[in-house]
Amino acid sequence: MRIDIITCLPKLLDSFFAHSILQRAQQGGYVEVVVHDLRDYSTDKHRRVDDYAFGGGAGMVMQIEPIARCIRALQAERTYDEVIYMTPDGERLTQKTANGLSMKQNLIVLCGHYKGVDERVREHFITREITIGDYVLSGGELPAAVLCDAIIRLLPGVLNDETSALTDSFQDNLLAPPVYTRPATFEGWSVPDVLLSGHEANIDEWRFQQALARTRERRPDLLGEN
């Protein structure tokens, strides 16, 4: 998989992709993440990529010209499955969304800024719009990083145990059950006996019931019970 991220603040993403699972995924050849500085595609001598909004009002708007140049330059090199715009009014990112995008080959992710992008970008270049929640951040870099993390960890070979991602919260419309590790007893607090029994079927059933109970308590909407 290849993910191209377009941003006017590329250094914000440097650290995020240089550590832990995302770094290993790139080093192992499972994904290629390329960050593009939108200002490189500006023809303004000051490398500006924003301007005042037509009609007045507060805030600046990202211009269509540098974005169009960047997207077209990338599309001239390869075919992209999606051109994604990170925006507060997009569809909410879910595990199902991440699962679907992890099956794609090439993605472009555009990070919004200021008051957003010229609407013509959304009309003529963007194929999908995604938000990570109902709130507004200073820019789309953090949402882009969250989206990439959610996708990349699902790629075969990225996690040491490929079944781990399949038991995460939301994979089966359930929250994950409680988990424990050593010591078996700490200050009188003990791990449930079933987890120490070695009886795989009983453990699986306990985990399912715990996941169901936790989901019903915390996110009944996932069960259609709200």
TrEMBL record:
Tell me which family the UniProt entry assigns to this protein: Belongs to the RNA methyltransferase TrmD family.
| HAMAP family the record matches | TrmD (MF_00605)
- Name of the protein described by the UniProt record: tRNA (guanine-N(1)-)-methyltransferase
| Statement: the UniProt record of this protein carries the keyword Calcium | no
Reaction catalysed by this enzyme: guanosine(37) in tRNA + S-adenosyl-L-methionine = N(1)-methylguanosine(37) in tRNA + S-adenosyl-L-homocysteine + H(+)
Q: What is the originating organism of this protein?
A: Nibrella viscosa
Q: What is its main location?
A: cytoplasm
Residues involved in S-adenosyl-L-methionine binding = 112, 132-137
Subunit composition? Homodimer.
